[in-house]
Amino acid sequence: MRISELPEEELLLPGNAACHGCSSTLCLRVVLKALGKRTVLVIPASCSSVYQGMFPKSAIAVPVINTAFASAAATASGVKAALLERGVDADVVVWAGDGGTYDIGLQSLSGAAERGEDMIYICYNNEMYSNTGVQRSGATPYGAWTNTTLSGKKEHRKDVAEIMISHGASYVATASAGYLLDLYKKVRRARKISGFWYIEILTPCPPGWKFPMSKSVEIAKLAVETGMWILYEYEEGKIKLTGVSKAIAEGKRRRKRVEEYLFSQGRFSHFSSEDVFEIERWIEDRWRRILGRNVYAAPAEFYV
Asked: 197: helix, coil or strand?
């Protein structure tokens, strides 16, 4: 399948108020192509609640419910129940940033996943609170500059996708703004699965990550090519790597040096060799954990 073969209908309209180079709008455009018009979006406080515009001139051509930071999953649960009561067949989708997923919205997300609500939760992860001025979130990686971690964050990010797996979600997947067909196929696949499902997309942010707005897709690809972000899907107790991550694990492609990714962004410009080593250690540890649960076995030289 090629990008040119995606549905032509546009449900995220041009002229929205997103920053130039915003990769979350690129991903939302593709997600809506995969879902179609019979979709209701629930959006907590985030960049999306700004760039969608104001009713009746919204840039999103499906029904949207804006809700409080902490309650997106709870709101979506109620909307789904109401639609079922009225006999309306529609996909109810939370479209939330990492602040509304990893931190402020984690409680309602956990509750919806634990109950097995028949709904879709998509986190577009730009690894910070971008809309409120670039503050750290639970998704911010080790060492990254933000306006609340001026000398670099001291902790590694948590992994909400793995938390959703531990909740017994029907389907969990990761995606990247650099690989839009991978994202499209995962959304289409997940729509066929009943129950709660969660997709997390890495969406680089030019002003927050401090890189030129023309480099968003390139950096999203580098995150995967260097192993900082792993593409996979989880279903029926198994993790299956996809795309470039699958090729790396099978020894068909070598990982790029992580410095290529880190030093393409101003938020890591202060890094020392010790910081780079810590990131490398974290990457190796995470790959071991993922591959330990995966059907593919990595060649021995992968760990060298």
From this structure: strand
